[in-house]
Specification:
Layout (H helix, E strand, L loop, with lengths): L15 H6 L6 E7 L10 E7 L3 H17 L3 E4 L12 H11 L3 E17 L4 E8 L6 E8 L4 E16 L4 E14 L7 H17 L6
Parallel strand pairs: 2-3, 2-4
Antiparallel strand pairs: 1-8, 4-7, 5-6, 7-8
Length: 215
Amino acid sequence: MSGALIRHPLLLAGVLFTMLAGCGAGTQVTRVHAVPDAADAPYRNILAVALFDSFDNSRELERAIAAELEARGVEAVPSTSHRNTLTPKTRQSLVEIVGKTGADAVLVIHLASVDADFKVKTMNPQSTYNIRPTWYYNLWSVELTEYVEPKALEIDNRLVLATELYSVQRRDLVWAIESRFEIVEGIDFLWDRKAFGQQASSITKHLVRDGLVAK
């Protein structure tokens, strides 16, 4: 599968706060790790960090999550509002963003795995008819012009999205889930806004259910 969709250079599970001490279809969520008695929860200022190769995808998902959290009265900041495509995904750059935002928790999202099926899709041709009478009774001349588009490649993506919450005070992982979902896309590998909204809503719902953010 092309790295244009999935591979990220820095996996932050169990890494981000080590650095601080010394980055479709319906959604099926399976909780992987949780500490429901986190002493500093609920969190009120969350930094959203999406680690995708596509900066646009990272920005869209971070914004969707921030919007969901802010609708519940939780201050939330997309990390992409403090970085761009040239910003390296390094320890120092992430520590600086945490310092600028004053976040008390960091929500890290990345693709854990992806499986895809490819198929060639035949596009619908468009036709025009030019019908003219002839000199003969009840006999017509029919001219058909057909405009055929090139065939398109369709990708059925089955993705597993890993979401991890880190406490700044505890400098440790306090919560994590996996989201399994499906997106059917064209060759551009860009997720639609509906997919971002679905994931953001699902993640926020589970954060609230587990008492990590205010209801």
